Amino acid sequence: MAKVTLEVNGKQVSKEVPDHTLLSVFLRDNLNLTGTHVGCDTSQCGACVVHVNGKSIKIKGVNRHEHHPRMGRTVDLKTMELDIKLMKQGNFNLVRTSHYPNDHRWYQLANEYGLYVLDDANQESHGYKTRNKILGDNPNWTIAHVDRATSMVHTNKNYSSIVIWSLGNEGGAGRNFKAMREAVLAIDDSRPILSDTDTSVSDFLERSYRTTTNVFEYLDKAKEMDKPFIQREYAHAMGNSLGNFQEHWDTIYANKNYVGGAIWDWVDQGLVRVKNTAMVSYGNDPTKLSLNPKREVWSYGGDFGDSPTDAEFLLNGIISSDRKPFPSYFEAKKVQQNIWFERTDEPLTFKISNRFDFTNLNAYDYVWQVKDQTKVLAKGKLAISVTPGESTLIKVPFSMVEGNTQELLVELSAHTKKDVVWSDKGFEVAFEQFVLSPYQYPTSVAGTGKKVKVHQTDDTIVITANKANLRIDSITGELTSYQVAGQALLVEPLAPYFWKPVNNNQGRNKFIERMAPWLNAAAYRQVSSVKVKQLSESLVEVNVVARLVVNHALYELTYLINGDGEVQITGDYTPDPERIQHKFMPKFGMRLALDKSLSNIHWYGRGPFENYPDRKTAAKVGHYQKSLKTFQVPYISATDSTNRSDVRNLSFANKQVQLNVEGLQPFNFRAWPYNESDLYSTSQSKVKNDVTDRIRRKHTYDLPDRGYINVNLDLKIHGVGGDHSWGAKTMQKYHVRADKPHSFSFILKAIELN
């Protein structure tokens, strides 16, 4: 035996231990500090963990169920490693084991990769009305409660990654929770304890699914209780959602006692099913996650004849069942980045802040670049050293060119300096874009000197300009045909359109009922006049005046056609202030159907992935190209999707012709091989109602290919929302006002490519 004396965490300790005892073993077993590995780094040494827990941090967490699309709750090591790499790459620093202790290999990976863990005890009984303490305060259940907690702690106490013990999920309150806390502290008093239902035994005030507007009453309450506030679940990421996530984190950083939260949740819990059967497709290799499209499809609740079912309610992930990131994943990564870039009053001077808890910014490489609309004009590297919690100013060494007329963007980014366990060298961990010189939008089409010919019949206005031929319906005012060099581009007319199908969250907040008047608002508009005016030899105007039933709004549609065959289209909406019944609309824009061959999509705006007004922080402005097939987002459950925001210009092309769309202001667009009505089917109720009696089609693969491209061009579109999925509405600032006027203009131009 040998007597060991040393200082640990500022305290002198002295113990007798066997001669062969390792330091790591001494810390773990004799001093009851965590740590399971021999060696020392920021995530493994027990002593370091104590210091980590002693420092105020922000929790950028995510809830994770153990789920495999072929093996159910059995997850192989390779898939675990893929999960944890994606978490680290997404700037997450904590995972909650919802709602049970996990496979021991997961904790080992968390240790190795440097990820905090909130460990959930397997105690959940909210299905048995425990909010009235039936189990939580019943002495007959004390032993069962305590056993769930102590089993977790005894099994996992030596994993340094665990920073919080949780007494379970939605399990009530009372004497049994006090007994659980006392039993945990008797084993390990080095970590805080969380209870979401019994504040008296919790070191935190926890209230999940608070919005950015109603969270403040809980922050005030937490201050009164002298406890930090946490959301163990927030930002319900079901389907196309995670809206206003930036607002969540603006609030978190603005309040010291708001320590953060964990997104619900990590991965879609979809299963691979054999086509046309109710059989799970297991496969022989669990590492093969993707579908075999010839024989397999994605499935969820109800697909196996199971009833009752929560249907798509387990499709809550920011990554897909086969571990492909959804657009919401990239939004979380961007908002949670630990290197923050801000502009100053000086155009090329920027503030860089270190939001890491322990890492100096000199651990990363930094790149700046200035881009115009087509290319990188200049780029370079920056040397930055900033300690945690501090900031510095940097200046980009770029000289503005006189007479520049193009949009200029400054982009700053941070990258891994070397290979790390969760990424290769050069991986982008943070970025920001700033507009240095704004985009110059056109103001109008102009006469070109080339003649525009007009021929009008009782039902059609025929306009010929250069190689373009256009037809406008004299009754409806719709652009029914647009041809160039004899090739027809339109399959269905261009017309006003105000309806947006629901996404997964909106289906549960009565979006259809609230927005129902807009479903057929365009189709039921009353056209009072369609007038043609020859403004000059090279410029023709067609003006359409209509009245909408909704809000008794005046709607004017104006076409300006010049000698090159360019068409400027303007939609003006003016509600009657005395007859406003509906304050909001799903969207304001137009719809058309293009020939399916025009499937090469190119745009200059935010991308490359889907983005919406309340979820676009992560989408960089740039030039992007996708085919119609790759343009779609592969959600399992059919939903509104594919929007791109802040678009300057856009084109659809085949090998012979290209249709350009140029905005007179930023706009949104969506492109689908199906139409809006395909996202719904009528229910089987006895009374059919065209407005409210609709249910979403179950799967994206159920949607038909209509043989054309359905295109929505919108000035504004309702945001996706995402605070929670049982009634929460999108933030009002991401609604589209129907009690205010709107004007939307864009230019269509078809050109031959050969």
What tags apply to this protein structure?
754 residues, single chain, 8-stranded parallel β-sheet, alpha+beta, Immunoglobulin-like, Beta-galactosidase, Chain A, domain 5, 12-stranded antiparallel β-sheet
Provide a compact summary of the structure.
With 754 residues, the protein is α+β, with helices and mostly antiparallel strands. A hairpin with a 2-residue loop joins strand 23 (479-484) and strand 24 (487-488).
Textual characterization of the structure:
It contains 11 helices and 40 strands. Among the domains are: 337-437, Immunoglobulins (Immunoglobulin-like, Sandwich); 455-752, Beta-galactosidase, Chain A, domain 5 (Distorted Sandwich). The chain is an alpha+beta fold and 754 residues long. It is globular, with a radius of gyration of 30 Å.
What is the CATH C level class of the domain at 455-752, in words?
Mainly Beta
Percent strand: 25-35%
Class per helix and strand makeup: alpha+beta
Report how far the terminal alpha carbons are from each other.
Answer: 89 Å
Q: Share of helix among residues?
A: 10-25%
Q: What are the SSEs and their pairings?
A:
Blueprint (H helix, E strand, L loop, with lengths): L1 E7 L2 E7 L5 H8 L15 H8 L5 E5 L13 H13 L4 E3 L7 H10 L2 E5 L21 H15 L5 E5 L8 H13 L5 E2 L10 E2 L9 H10 L3 E6 L10 H10 L3 E6 L7 E4 L21 E4 L27 H9 L3 E5 L5 E6 L9 E8 L4 E7 L8 E5 L12 E9 L11 E10 L14 E5 L3 E6 L2 E6 L5 E6 L2 E2 L1 E8 L13 H5 L10 E11 L2 E9 L6 E9 L4 E8 L9 E2 L1 E9 L4 E8 L12 E8 H4 L12 E10 L3 E16 L7 E3 L11 E3 L11 E10 L18 E2 L4 E11 L2
Parallel strand pairs: 3-4, 3-10, 4-5, 5-6, 6-7, 8-9, 9-10
Antiparallel strand pairs: 1-2, 11-12, 13-14, 14-17, 15-16, 15-18, 18-19, 20-21, 21-22, 22-23, 23-24, 25-31, 26-27, 27-28, 28-29, 29-40, 30-39, 31-38, 32-33, 32-34, 34-35, 35-38, 35-40, 36-37
Helix pairs in contact: 3-4, 5-6
